[in-house]
Amino acid sequence: MSVPQGHWKTTTVTAGLRTSGITAPWLLDGAMNGQAFRTYVADVLAPTLQPGNTVVMDNLPAHKVSGVGERIEAVGARLL
Fold first, then answer.
1. What is the Cα–Cα distance from 3 to 61, expressed in whole angstroms?
2. Three-state secondary-structure class, residue 21
3. Is 52 in contact with 25 (CB distance < 8 Å)?
4. Could you tell me which residue ranges the Tc1-like transposase DDE domain spans (predicted)?
């Protein structure tokens, strides 16, 4: 089967991982950016968090946009 050259599509899968398994899965048509990550945190991840939960993120620039940490801490979770 032939494949067209240079016509790639980016799909991003983001989710939380708990000791009990995957939580808050989200599929994004395109690459992750700050605005998309802030939307994910506010609309998908934060509603699944409970006081005392810990969210660990790496240094991806999208993780550093304003509002992300505040939303996580607003539900009583801790951000690392």
1. 32
2. strand
3. no
4. 4-74
pLDDT digits (tens, 9 = 90+) for 41-71: 999 999 999 999 999 999 999 999 999 999 9
Residue 4 in tokens: 């067209």
Half-sphere exposure of 43 (CA within 13 A, CB side): 9
Q: In the chain, what percentage of residues exceed pLDDT 90?
A: 88
Predicted pLDDT at 6: 67
DSSP H/E element including 55:
strand 54-55
CB neighbourhood size of 40 (10 A): 21
